[in-house]
Write a structure and sequence with these properties.
heterodimer; A: alpha/beta; Rossmann fold; 2 domains; five-stranded parallel β-sheet; two-stranded antiparallel sheet; globular; B: alpha+beta; Heat Shock Protein 90; 5 helices
Chain lengths: ~170, ~240
């Protein structure tokens, strides 16, 4: 899959990494910098440091962990969106995307990457976000589609099932 | 326990039940703590190391060393697998969900995790008039379901599980049914620690546990429990249904 190359003038796209776990910051930095055309603008562990890092100059993209210690990464995503509307964000998380990916998108992130599916996915997501496109995994796209199809049909069989459970309830009384 | 010794043991049994309850509460707190450490500590470190290894693989590949690059990619794959296993372990330890998903939410999370990790069918059906319970009651009920599911896979070799939660006549009923081998009638497998713990949990919330072999095959674990007296049968949170 093609990845972002260096800009015509040789400059690189810069990324701000925000994650409260030091080994993860190290790994993310190494992975991002292994890609020609990408450079790490800064790697910080908390909301205030992230906003401080963006005061003087701006990165091309912010990669934000969902859980920043006691802080909510999604609050930072919203704040970046308000203060620096031209800087897109990607959300990283160890949590199940089924629950959090949609929240990340509603907070204004351009994508959601599960930390347990790093190989290749992260760089694809970065490429999409730098191009201004939304990135979610194929599994999530499938799940969202399945959910909308089955949502209406789901209730009726569940209610039938409940009645049979009520019959058992008397037995157990 | 000193059952069969008559009335003199009644205060003793009361104290014992309090102790059992306290022990379970401590065990649950510890499990949640370990689960959180695994998820927020160990998994994050493993993910960082996976990212470092992935960077190494890319740099080896770019340097024209396909053999070592493939070895580094294999390390990344193994690390990702290990992260998945550790996450499953962490989820098993903290079943209530991330932010107090409530009873229905906790059971739905359990069913979803089983579908994802066991590749088995697991359905969850519940009455939408789900009342709010205290955290302790929710924890006990989700743990009972979790233990029943664990037994269904480990001892019953089931591949289909149905969890249901309903309310009727002032009491609630949680049932976990599987299509496995079924619990033995002679009680040989009835003395496992898991069954005792489920029974303690049921009693701790004022309920009763019934474990039966289903005529059509498989096991049914049912926990009937009293509802809080003052609660209204109100509609559950709207997003509970959306979690499946």
């Amino acid at each position: 899959m093609p990845m972002p190359r260096a800009e015509p003038d040789g400059s690189r796209r810069t990324l701000l990494v925000v994650d409260d776990h030091p080994i993860l910051r190290l790994g993310l930095t190494a992975l991002i910098e292994s890609e020609p055309g990408l450079a790490v603008f800064g790697a910080v562990g908390a909301r205030a440091e992230a906003l401080e890092a963006m005061r003087e100059s701006k990165p091309d993209l912010a990669v934000v962990d969902l859980a920043l210690g006691d802080e909510d990464g999604l609050d930072l995503v919203k704040e970046i969106r308000t203060r620096h509307p031209k800087v897109p964000s990607l959300v990283l998380s160890m949590h199940d995307e089924a629950v959090y990916a949609e929240r990340a998108l509603s907070a204004g992130a351009l994508g959601y990457v599960a930390k347990h599916e790093f190989d290749g996915t992260l760089l694809c997501a970065i490429r999409s976000a730098l191009a201004g496109e939304i990135f979610i995994s194929e599994a999530l796209q499938r799940r969202l589609a399945e959910r909308s199809i089955s949502a209406a049909a789901r209730l009726r069989p569940a209610r039938r099932w409940m009645r049979s459970a009520t019959a058992n309830c008397r037995f157990l009384g | 326990m000193f059952r069969g010794e008559g009335e003199a043991t009644i205060p003793h049994v009361g104290r014992q039940e309090l102790l059992e309850r306290e022990i379970l509460a401590i065990a649950d707190r510890e499990k949640q703590h370990i689960g959180r450490e695994l998820h927020d500590g160990l998994c994050q470190s493993l993910a960082g190391i996976a990212a470092l290894s992935s960077a190494l693989a890319r740099s080896l590949a770019a340097g024209g060393q396909p053999g070592p690059a493939a070895a580094a990619d294999e390390i990344v794959r193994l690390l990702n697998e290990t992260i998945g296993e550790t996450r499953d372990l962490a989820h098993g330890l903290g079943p209530i969900g991330l932010n107090g998903a409530g009873l229905a939410g906790g059971l739905e999370n359990l069913a979803r995790n089983i579908r994802h990790t066991r590749r088995a069918s697991c359905t969850f059906a519940w009455d939408s008039r789900c009342p709010g319970f205290c955290g302790e009651t929710e924890t006990h009920l989700v743990r009972i379901a979790q233990e029943a599911v664990r037994n269904a896979f480990a001892h019953g070799r089931a591949d289909r599980i149905e969890i249901s939660l309903e309310y009727a006549d002032g009491s609630g009923l949680l049932i976990i049914r599987d299509n496995g081998l079924g619990i033995s009638e002679d009680g040989r497998r009835r003395d496992g620690i898991g069954l005792h713990t489920m029974d303690y949990r049921a009693r701790a919330i004022g309920g009763a546990l019934t474990v039966t072999r289903r005529p059509e095959g498989g096991t049914s674990v049912a926990c009937a429990f009293p509802l809080p007296r003052t609660h209204d049968m109100r509609e559950g949170p709207a997003d509970a249904h959306a979690q499946s």
